[in-house]
Amino acid sequence: MTKNSQPLSLRVPEPSGRPGDAPDFSHLILDAAGAVDRPDVGSKPFDMRDHAFRLVRVLDDEGQAVGPWNPRLDAETLRRGLKAMILTRAFDDRMHRAHRQGKTSFYMKCTGEEAIAVAQGMILSREDMGFPTYRQQGLLIARGYPLTAMMNQIYSNAEDPIKGRQLPIMYSARDYGFFTISGNLGTQVPQAVGWAMASAYKGDDKIAITWIGDGATAEGDFHNALTFASVYRAPVILNIVNNQWAISSFQGIAGGLETTFASKAIGYGLPALRVDGNDFLAVWAATQWAEERARSNQGATVIELFTYRGAPHSTSDDPSRYRPGDEHEKWPLGDPVARLKQHLIALGEWSDDQQTEAEAEAVAQVREAGKQSESIGTLGQSRPSVKTMFEEVYATEDWRLTEQRREVGV
């Protein structure tokens, strides 16, 4: 038997900074705004494989939209996007405080990632189906879903639209193109691909879109989904939200130091785009490109949205224990709300006063929704009727359910 000349060692990836360290993003290679070319929508995946390693950006440091990916949106659309992001952030802040006040058991913010769900929620139709993770609340907010209904679900009160059957923030809103969130990480991706395959099989005109975090790409569900998406040319947009951190492990644990997450598409014969996730215009343009490809029967696109999770992973998490405290402030791609605000001001279509007014209006809107929801009840104060646990499972009630209902008197 041949022996190694030296002992083997196991490599465990380490982030560039831990608590107490100065944030260090010097290892990032970021293309300048406007530097990446826009391939034809009909391009073969092999011919555009370099896009899996570049970074699509539209907004430059002065807030100007530059380059071939500029979607040239009108000012009203930009203002709607900015206001939806502001409202999403205000909603997050209030619900996070509600958890600290004991009104709910759990919450997850999307601070720093608002441009992703808002832009994509504005582009696609409600009839297209979104298969989100727990950080796409902006999708519902951008589409005008009632804030009170979202809060009722978080509080699991008597008006909870899901009737207490889901953890807080795991919304379900079919009429808004929002498939029920699954707490089992990664399962939403094969579900989205399957839904898209069914749409194509029926000769329908609806497409699917899904999101997964960088950490969950290590799940087998993700890779199984890419196989099916490629083989059957499913009309689906597959987003990888690389926000640098899973619950406490950095993106390197899922392979982010070896290559980009977008490049995982190459091995499956899928086109890939790597996009500045804090640039509302870049997210819009890339999604528009992928949507056109899907609707023209050219199949799926993988988009890595390069962003940063500014808030804790959830209310159960303390990021100060595993990363530098000011790392979010030093993120080189800035803040999506501030960047879109700067762009609108540069266009002469917005001002600091309008920003202040929009933020105040968002806080007031969220406060009013909170009053309505809390009047129904918060954690443990009111609950969906017990009888709902026996409903909406079988088309015809099973005899055992009849007996169980009788036992509890409903």
From TrEMBL:
<dbReference type="Pfam" id="PF12573">
    <property type="entry name" value="OxoDH_E1alpha_N"/>
</dbReference>
<keyword id="KW-0786">Thiamine pyrophosphate</keyword>
<comment type="function">
    <text>The branched-chain alpha-keto dehydrogenase complex catalyzes the overall conversion of alpha-keto acids to acyl-CoA and CO(2). It contains multiple copies of three enzymatic components: branched-chain alpha-keto acid decarboxylase (E1), lipoamide acyltransferase (E2) and lipoamide dehydrogenase (E3).</text>
</comment>
<dbReference type="InterPro" id="IPR001017">
    <property type="entry name" value="DH_E1"/>
</dbReference>
<dbReference type="InterPro" id="IPR029061">
    <property type="entry name" value="THDP-binding"/>
</dbReference>
<feature type="compositionally biased region" description="Basic and acidic residues">
    <location>
        <begin position="315"/>
        <end position="332"/>
    </location>
</feature>
<keyword id="KW-0560">Oxidoreductase</keyword>
<comment type="similarity">
    <text>Belongs to the BCKDHA family.</text>
</comment>
<feature type="domain" description="Dehydrogenase E1 component">
    <location>
        <begin position="83"/>
        <end position="376"/>
    </location>
</feature>
<dbReference type="Pfam" id="PF00676">
    <property type="entry name" value="E1_dh"/>
</dbReference>
<feature type="domain" description="2-oxoisovalerate dehydrogenase E1 alpha subunit N-terminal">
    <location>
        <begin position="6"/>
        <end position="45"/>
    </location>
</feature>
<dbReference type="InterPro" id="IPR022593">
    <property type="entry name" value="Oxoisoval_DH_suAlpha_N_dom"/>
</dbReference>
<protein>
    <recommendedName>
        <fullName>2-oxoisovalerate dehydrogenase subunit alpha</fullName>
        <ecNumber>1.2.4.4</ecNumber>
    </recommendedName>
</protein>
<dbReference type="InterPro" id="IPR050771">
    <property type="entry name" value="Alpha-ketoacid_DH_E1_comp"/>
</dbReference>
<feature type="region of interest" description="Disordered">
    <location>
        <begin position="311"/>
        <end position="333"/>
    </location>
</feature>
<dbReference type="GO" id="GO:0003863">
    <property type="term" value="F:branched-chain 2-oxo acid dehydrogenase activity"/>
</dbReference>
<feature type="region of interest" description="Disordered">
    <location>
        <begin position="1"/>
        <end position="25"/>
    </location>
</feature>
<dbReference type="GO" id="GO:0009083">
    <property type="term" value="P:branched-chain amino acid catabolic process"/>
</dbReference>
